[in-house]
Design goal:
The chain has 223 residues and is of the alpha+beta class. The chain has a domain at 76-222: Endonuclease/exonuclease/phosphatase (Deoxyribonuclease I, Chain A). The protein contains five helices and twelve strands. This is Endonuclease/exonuclease/phosphatase domain-containing protein.
Length: 223
């Protein structure tokens, strides 16, 4: 669906073709009671990171990449980090030729399992641009506490900062069937990006019932 949507916009909204990085893995999601009932047709989950640069031409052919000297996007370095104690969770890291690292993760709800995943991720130890985002399954304070344990309080406080939202980012159902909105999604960015973030972070909370998480968007000023 994403590929069809992107192809339909190349030449109008998009000046060139983005590069889509995808990692698909099998999950065993828990089926919970909800209105209308729900069954999983496919237990696979995909983490997807789209790299788009309007100034870079990316052209695919069946046998080769044309104009390779212009294709900075193909120099992206990709790394998949599985969760050792929960095979249904993990992190997809994309590092671009410019030095930007984007980590797209599904972090386990259980703190012990989360720790086992997060300690295997390469966290920023310098001022290079760095972004961590995804289904983090906890608020920013709880997440930063785990990071402090993993990489050291001083380093974490000086190099990594949470970018939070002004509106709830997730809606769920309480045991009594009523809806509950909570703040659970945010960004972690490096010091080099902290002051470039355009606030407030936008929360798309009018998407209907297609997900229990609302899409969130943070934009940065040009460096």
């Amino acid at each position: 669906m994403l590929r069809k949507m992107i192809d339909a916009h190349v030449g109008s909204v998009l000046t060139s073709k983005p590069l889509i990085h995808t990692h698909t893995y099998s999950r065993k999601p828990q089926i919970r009671n909800r209105q209308g009932g729900f069954l999983y047709n496919d237990s696979n989950e995909s983490l997807v990171t789209i790299h788009y640069n309007p100034n870079t031409v990316f052209t695919e052919t069946k046998s080769e990449l044309e104009n390779a000297e212009k294709h900075f996007l193909i120099d992206d370095q990709i790394l998949w980090t599985p969760c050792p104690s929960d095979p249904g969770k993990g992190a997809l890291t994309v590092t671009t030729a410019s030095g930007l690292s984007v980590i797209n993760a599904h972090v386990p709800y259980d703190n012990k399992a989360a720790f086992s995943l997060l300690k295997n991720i390469t966290w920023s130890n310098n001022n290079n641009p760095f972004v961590f985002v995804g289904d983090i399954n906890r608020n920013s304070s709880a997440f930063m506490k785990i990071l402090h344990e993993i990489i050291g309080d001083k380093s974490c406080s000086n190099l990594l900062f949470p970018i939070t939202t002004d509106k709830p980012t997730r809606v769920g159902l309480r045991r009594d069937g009523t809806r509950e909105k909570i703040w659970i999604d945010f960004y972690i960015v490096s010091a080099s990006l902290k002051n470039l973030a355009i606030l407030p972070v936008e929360v798309y909370d009018n998407i209907g019932d297609i997900s229990d998480h609302y899409p969130i968007l943070v934009q940065f000023k040009a460096m």
